[in-house]
Amino acid sequence: MDPFKQMSDWRKNMDHFFGDQFWNEFEGVIKPTIPQINIYQYDHELICIVNIPGLTDLNKVDIFVDYARLELKGAIDISYTGGTVVKEEILQGVFEREITLPFPVRRDKINATYKDGLVFIQLHRLISDESGRNKVNVQIVEHD
Questions:
Q1: Cα dist. 128→14, 41, 71, 125 in Å?
Q2: Boundaries of domain holding 22
Q3: I need a labelling partner for 56 at 20 to 30 A (CA). Which of 16, 23, 30, 128 fits?
């Protein structure tokens, strides 16, 4: 029997007892999130580093950026066969992640590269064409 299916059934029963959102805080412990991602923030730039080992076909991963959201879809498949598994720590499988970015980013200035099992995504802060500075008019109030 699939252990994740058993865990899912067990979780549904616990959700029914404790409430639907009870396990959300434990999600990463029960089933770690893939792919792992690090995000580094600079003044006007973000560097996102995504761990996707064994990627040989770049068409098997989709990366979408929308305003202040990064979406990743694809699969991690090491494709190793043979032998008996003694230890398996490298997470594999289909993934779909949505990450909220710390600020909105430009759609026209995105760079992504893949090297040594890591996807490097460079994003630039969206700075509005309108100035954030507004002139405040001061009025004189006559004393009564």
A1: 46, 19, 23, 10
A2: 1-31
A3: 30
